[in-house]
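Sequence in, structure out. Go.
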Amino acid sequence: MIVTVTANPSTDRTIELAGPLRRGEVHRAARVVDQPGGKGINVARVVRAAGLPTLAVLPARADDPFIDSLRAVALPHQAVSADGTVRTNLTVAEPDGTTTKINDAGTAVSAEAAAALRTTIMARAEGADWLALCGSLPPGLPDDWYAQVLAATASLHCRVAVDTSGAPLAAVAAARPALLKPNSDELAELTGDDPAGMERSAAQGDPSVAAAASRTLADRTGGTVLTTLGAAGALLTTPDGIWFATAPAVAVRSTVGAGDASLAGYLIAHLRGADEAGLLRSAVAHGSAAAALPGTTPPTPDLLDEAGVSVSRLS
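Output:
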């Protein structure tokens, strides 16, 4: 069982343009897609598509239209009652794969709702193999909320994966999760390195800059770090070594949710007993397949190109 937590869920509205985005001009949408989202929701949908058991935990009113959208995609979920309405995030996708995101901050979570959410997480995590804490935190939750949840699960048998950014990422990195999934920007937040330089050198076949930063972070957390580098591929850093994978060439349609699919790919492969190379291959194959789909559509197994992922051990 993979339990995901989406503290700040969203309806993800993707507007596909027929041409490039021109600031200040009027555009007509070629296609508009609304999908239930938020990082944990995205991860759970990919796990569900792979045929593995999953449960998405989130705060939302029982009568929120967002809950209907989860039912529409047949995603197992448990909603903890919360005030307000689930936010809508906007993505503008250009034909060349460039995406521009405008994210709402989300509705504030009350102290009562936060306590209920944490109680639900603890109950569901007790029987899970993995607990994935994903995405931004809404107003009302402190920056160290994920770190608090991680500490509370220390006595349980489930592993904890975290995918977030900013102050919540800094707080949880010190709490030593089993797995952190930063992208190059998020890795740079913690190590002070240049994210553009990481991706540029990796795309040129030299992942050493990103690998050194990933090793610094893995040594700090004592766990595993899965670093996604966009089209350049990804790194898997464990206490025992570093692996680098290049991504298969795809026609990028939307990068939103690709990192979430990568995390899901890792978790799926871990439940199936893969070794480090297999874990990274699955992560990159899932992320690449997601990037070729509209919006945050989860990739299905038939769309994966694991044979097109090249994995090498760096150390």
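Check: The first strand starts at residue 2 and ends at 6. The chain has a mean pLDDT of 95.
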